[in-house]
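User: Before I run my own analysis I want an independent prediction to cross-check against. Here's the chain; please return only the structure tokens and, at the end, one sentence I can use as a sanity check.
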Amino acid sequence: MDKMTTTTGHHSNTPASFGKKTVLAQAIALGLMGSGMNAWAQQPDPDAPATLPKVQVEADAITPYKANKASSPIYTQPLAETPKTITVVTQEVLQDQAVTTLRDALRNVSGITMQAGEGGVAAGDNLSIRGFDATNDLYVDGVRDIGSYSRDTFNLEAVEVTKGPSSTTSGRGSAGGSINVVSKTAKFEEFKRGNVMVGNDSQLRAAIDVNSQLSNTVAGRLNLMTEDSGVPGRDVTERESTGVAGALTFKLSPKTTLTGGVTYLDQENLPDGGVPLLTDANGKRYLDEDTAENYYGVENRDYDNNEVLSFKFAVDHQFNDNLSLRNQTFIGQTETSAAFTRPSFNSDTGMVRRGGVKARDEDRDIFSNQTTLRSMFTSGSVKHDLVTGIDLTQEEYVRYEMVTENDDPAEVDLYNPQTDDAYTGSIRRGGGENEGSYDSIALFVSDTITFTPQWSTTLGLRAEQYDQEYSQNYTSSGRGGDTPPFKYETDDTLVSWNASVSYKPVENGTVYLGLANAQTPLGSNLTLSEDEQDIDAEEDELIELGTKWELFGDKLLATAAIFQSTKTNAQTTDENDLLVLDGEQQVRGLELGLNGTINDRLSVIANYSYTDTEITESGDPDEEGTDLFNIPEHSANLWATYLLNQDWEVGGGFQYIGEYDNGSSTSLDSVTLVNVLAAWQATDNIKLQLNCNNLTDEKYLLKPRGSRGVPGTGRSITLTASVEF
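Assistant: Structure tokens:
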């Protein structure tokens, strides 16, 4: 809690001086009230000199770019005292940057690399954190989001990125870290907000956010979104989506609160399969900038459709000041059907092959019930902040057999592709299915033990028992020949742990040393092969030394950490080409971060990551000593906004992605993307905001994959009109 006599709001409709006057007026009012109460309770001495009572106003510092705490109930301490690297991208950052997708939100966090989807289908939000794949480490309100789709931000309060192994918090996986998106909730206040966004390349989007206090005990919220947009710098590609989200909060009693929410997202996109990469004289593939905007798909064949539906219900009960209980039930369903073209350059003809389509049709379902009990108590002079809980989860996956007929699109010109020809083939379900399931029960405990105001330790343990099945009821054909029907099963118990010690040399600073591990069973994406069913989980171990400081009156959080992560039993192949866990991969690095406000006008979010990766042991001796693919050594981002006066705000920054290799045949050059903002508060209720991303229109690869790659978004210019009514 900051003890202040003045506060100002970053997005206020009044200048900083007006904000100070408002708080000063409140202080005066409080003083008069206090004086009046004193007069009523006790008559003053008529001979005493007249004086006004001293008033001290305490309020939280208004820090729109700085979150005070992570949403997970397992993290009981403020972010400034949590012994892990956690970056929170707040709603104010998302609004200032006019962010609409999770991928764009993550450009505020260094050390994250976007990747292409396996086989070129259903790419979705594939990414890595600190060198390790994190595609299956995406969460919604603490529950694994197992769908493969591009996530929208219309119903998000914040995006939380946790770096380093975090299986004790989130369950299996998270070798490099995890990403949790926080949904909007109903609040006990009144507001109605709407915005319309228009931009180049046919960008068009509208959203509305309405919150109402329905009674003294019930609040409701409704979010609506619709979008029909092209993609700047990419021909033909389209994004079309509709989103609906509702939330309720019900105060059952002063100590018990019920919250619920439903979210529905429907996407019908014309997907981007990327562009063919050319090969130079040294055998290295590269992006020809003259082709960077071209579309090489089959417009009348390709599609990417997603339906996402989720329900959430939670009960929070406060027994007393030191004991509280939370139970959350989450039910989610994702249906994805997609067909992508995988273009490649034909050096014999000088044309672009588009080949047979790679299609996928799948359903993923999850049921999760999480219960956490938090208790705070003392044992002698030692304070405990203890969280215990149980996590019950059922996940199911169905992938339908796909059959194509007459699917042989003609080659197209590299520099002038004609892609709108009629498609005479067909894509349909064949009747067969692949089915997977993952049932687990986990018990977890975490305790922050405070010995003195300077010294504390945090210990965590999670035991997760799981049963997994995967089956195929038809004969499929592939590169390895025909695969007859099969059924594989496996089960195991995963034990994850973390331990850290923290020292506070001063009230606003913390230094910590942390150890942790992560357990990742093979096939944790709900698929399983014969080789994987009887093999132990991969394990990653971390050591991290970090420090966190709250500066400028606790409005700015500065962080730094050095770390080493080692995957001690990484999957590799032996001399008989069989899958074994005899590999080892190591990632060392340095991370720096800033989040918050420097003064009443200047806000900033910035990160830098140095990531050094190495395959230290492998079944293939040629791999030993080489880097992990798709991981730049250096990455950084900066975004800052400045209030010029009561009406005008300007901002800008950059995202830097260092050079890196995508396998032995592709090297990616470094790129710096410049983004700028200008916003005008036209009236008390209307705001106009101009954003330009990739100002210099850099041509670069966002997602390389073999002989093709998906270029990054070109120059994007959007104008957003926001209304409060």
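Sanity check: The domain at 79-117+128-724 is CATH 2.40.170.20 (Maltoporin; Chain A).
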